[in-house]
Q: What sequence folds into this?
């Protein structure tokens, strides 16, 4: 594969991550495929382009922090950490099994590379804000990135955190919303309307940046813009497609919490291979 | 009791740079004013938002700080159990949760503000320690002790000033405190009920009945060995707390003694009801949580009679 340009390199990583997600969830026999796949290009951009970290992505002076608030898409995080080399690829196949460090929803105590345990929606932004305030107190330069799903925005606690984050003027906090428009029961706008989501964050004092969540150039620009924001937190609302990369399940809410069986996996991997993943134009 | 906490926080602010304080619009009420005045950079007001309070405290703890997050017990843990369970306990985050205005003694504000279930709730959470000091001095000592002990903890304070208890030793986390010895009945108690139990034991002694008064300030982890050792010397046990005894201190003692040393046991505390508005003394009388009720119950358990 030609991986000469940055976006081509990212596309290659994203392909490997999607492949790993499909394989690990099929072997696990359960998990949340839809959101895991929609998040991949964002996580790829973060871990292979944006995040500043050295030996260990955690707890080193001036490192960035990454908080996964919507814990159910952890197959994507595990696969990304494996792609970066922080986890062994073999370990991915222990997902959701007894005694595995890769719990069905991420566990900080089992896998300390995960910054905080999550799984109950709406807690990550508050924890991320606490970390942002902590970094400021410690005079550290790192930023805190908090990844949330769009359905998660329905939790009231997200808005408690949103209000406090702008009050405390934390420009070292950058939130990302995976706006795939679907949640367990159907379209977000039918379940409980979120729109206009950007206006809501703006009203709460945030800088709002819109991005195409499957276009690396768009994501890179969005993160660049977010890092330049002064005196307030910023949120990147990334438009994505649930199940991105596997045509047969794209935009189908019934794949929020389902995985492929072994037969379907073959077809899905084929689909992934022929179609490629994110657009990688400049 | 809150004064003891406030004094300890002012000292901790001075001595431990990692200690930070947070509140949900109740900084004065939880006696954090001095901390705020002296260490404004390490004081965080989050507004009336207890879920966010816990999350921010968790983030600070995971970055190496020692946060004390305060509110009224009715809101903390009442409003933010999910955050406490997952962000604090599952992460083993070094967060100290402080719930003031615990129990019926909160008084005129009524049932909504009289937190009676906090001990039972917090005791059920893995990794969580539960401490209920008996007076101002013990609140002070317990606060210092919790700052030095790594791990999640809940400190329950009450609104009312209480008489200080005469004691021979300082607060020792995880150990029962023997206030008076006795070999007829053991009264296991905590918080504001320690004073009541002591009064009851003084009266009973005149009747020739010797009660051991045991202050169980650390309800979790419970000093199992100490509780069982005490129970071996007596004919019966009474527990006394300002809260629901099911799942509370009463539950903790019953679980332990049923396993290691079954003995007749009675409970003083809220009997599966809500409170109501009233003066603390009136409420304690109406809901049978005074020294007279402890005396009566201790006599019954001693004589093997039923109410």
A:
């Amino acid at each position: 594969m030609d991986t000469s340009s940055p976006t081509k390199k990212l596309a290659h990583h994203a392909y490997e991550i999607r492949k790993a997600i499909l394989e690990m969830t099929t072997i696990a026999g359960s998990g949340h495929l839809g959101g895991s796949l929609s998040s991949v290009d964002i996580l790829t951009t973060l871990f292979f382009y944006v995040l500043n970290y050295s030996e260990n992505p955690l707890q080193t002076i001036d490192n960035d922090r990454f908080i996964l608030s919507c814990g159910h898409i952890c197959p994507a995080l595990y696969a990304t950490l494996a792609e970066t080399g922080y986890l062994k690829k073999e370990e991915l196949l222990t997902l959701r099994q007894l005694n595995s460090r890769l719990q069905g929803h991420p566990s900080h105590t089992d896998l300390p590379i995960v910054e905080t345990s999550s799984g109950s929606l709406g807690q990550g932004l508050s924890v991320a804000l606490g970390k942002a305030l902590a970094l400021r107190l410690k005079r550290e330069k790192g930023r805190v990135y908090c990844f949330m799903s769009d359905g998660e925005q329905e939790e009231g606690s997200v808005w408690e955190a949103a209000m406090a984050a702008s009050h405390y003027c934390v420009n070292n906090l950058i939130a990302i919303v995976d706006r795939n428009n679907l949640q367990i029961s159907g379209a977000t706008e039918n379940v409980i309307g979120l729109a206009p989501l950007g206006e809501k964050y703006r009203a709460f004092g945030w800088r709002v940046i819109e991005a195409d969540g499957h276009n690396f150039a768009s994501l890179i620009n969005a993160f660049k813009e977010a890092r330049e924001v002064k005196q307030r937190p910023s949120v990147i609302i990334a438009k994505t497609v649930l199940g991105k990369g596997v045509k047969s399940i794209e935009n189908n809410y019934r794949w929020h919490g389902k995985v492929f069986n072994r037969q379907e996996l073959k077809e899905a991997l084929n689909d992934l291979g022929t179609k490629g993943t994110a657009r990688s134009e400049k | 009791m809150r004064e003891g906490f406030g004094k300890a926080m002012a000292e901790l602010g001075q001595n431990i740079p990692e200690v930070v304080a947070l509140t949900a619009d109740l900084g004065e009420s939880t006696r954090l004013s001095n901390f705020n005045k002296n260490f404004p950079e390490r004081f965080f007001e989050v507004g009336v938002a207890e879920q966010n309070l816990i999350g921010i405290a968790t983030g600070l703890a995971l970055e190496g700080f020692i946060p004390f997050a305060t509110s009224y017990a009715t809101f903390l843990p009442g409003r933010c159990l999910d955050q406490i369970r997952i962000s604090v306990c599952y992460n083993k985050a070094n967060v100290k949760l402080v719930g003031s205005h615990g129990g019926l003694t909160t008084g005129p504000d009524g049932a909504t503000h009289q937190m009676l279930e906090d001990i039972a709730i917090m005791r059920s959470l893995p990794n969580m320690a539960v401490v209920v000091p008996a007076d101002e001095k013990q609140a002070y000592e317990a606060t210092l002790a919790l700052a030095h002990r790594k791990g999640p903890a809940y400190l329950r304070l009450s609104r009312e000033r209480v008489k200080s208890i005469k004691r021979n030793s300082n607060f020792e986390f995880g150990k029962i405190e023997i206030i008076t010895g006795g070999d007829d009945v053991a009264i296991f108690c905590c918080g504001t009920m320690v004073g009541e139990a002591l009064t009851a034991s003084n009266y009973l002694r005149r009747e020739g009945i010797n009660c051991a008064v045991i202050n169980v300030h650390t309800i979790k982890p419970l000093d199992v060995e100490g509780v069982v050792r005490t129970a071996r010397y007596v004919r019966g046990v009474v527990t006394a707390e300002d809260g629901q005894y099911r799942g509370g201190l009463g539950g903790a003692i019953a679980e332990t003694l049923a396993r290691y040393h079954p003995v007749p046991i009675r409970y003083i505390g809220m009997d599966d009801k809500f409170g109501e508005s009233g003066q603390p003394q009136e409420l304690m009388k109406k809901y049978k949580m005074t020294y007279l009720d402890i005396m009566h119950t201790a006599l019954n358990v001693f004589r093997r009679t039923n109410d």
About this structure: The first helix of chain A runs from residue 6 to 28. Confidence is low (pLDDT under 50) at residues 278-282 of chain A.
